[in-house]
Amino acid sequence: MTLDVPVADAAAKPAKTLPDAQTVTAVRHWTDRLFSFRVTRPASLRFRSGEFVMIGLPGDNGKPILRAYSIASPAWDDELEFYSIKVPDGPLTSKLQNIQVGDEIILRPKPVGTLVLDALLPGKRLWFLATGTGIAPFASLMREPESYERFEQVIMMHTCRTADELAYGRELVENLRHDPLLGELYGEDFAKRLLYYPTTTREDGPLMGRITDNLTSGKVFRDLGLPPMDPATDRAMICGSLAFNTDVKEVLEGFGLREGANSDPKEFVVEKAFVGDGI
After folding, report:
1. From which residue to which does the signal peptide run (predicted)?
2. 173, containing H or E segment
């Protein structure tokens, strides 16, 4: 079950009181552990889809508690969207999960990150590999027309414990498949250009298994009718826990792909600033 909170009239709110303050415009609770929210975008903020910024709230001592959060909205959006877990005792999310429309958060407008298209060599297929809220930067990149200009196909592999935790990504992909802008740019076959492969690890469902297992066994390639990864044609981005990133990196290297960076584009990149448990 999800809860939508309507957008309030920001003009009716008092003047900003926090440093680097931005106003919350929408909040949606997807499960008891996951929520997304949107905030106003600083007029001067420029970022590349896939990058992250530092956001936060004042702590009990008045000092800001800041964490790295990937921007889930694309670079062309007028607002900024974020997707977060809820940690009851987390220094930040114990407070952040209670924000409401009209509240303020701290947002440091200095975007950085490795999950950007410029960090990859040209290719044919682009794989997004994520667990949990690691889908956030790919929520940005899947809505970025440039992703489809550079690659013939985009494949979103997303794994969560249970089916309800996949709801954010599932709804986003479904909406994109009927997006008028992308449909106008790429025709009626756009649905074939964005492939979605959601799996669960603790709850039975149509598709199950960890991303590493589905890649090494070849199951995902058989299910989607694609050839195995090839460094000549396939590019990938990874975002998840440190253990997930390490495991998937080894799998991709087994296919012959090399890790790249903004200054040295290669076949895959890893986001090392993912916000994990305990935040």
Report:
1. none
2. helix 167-177
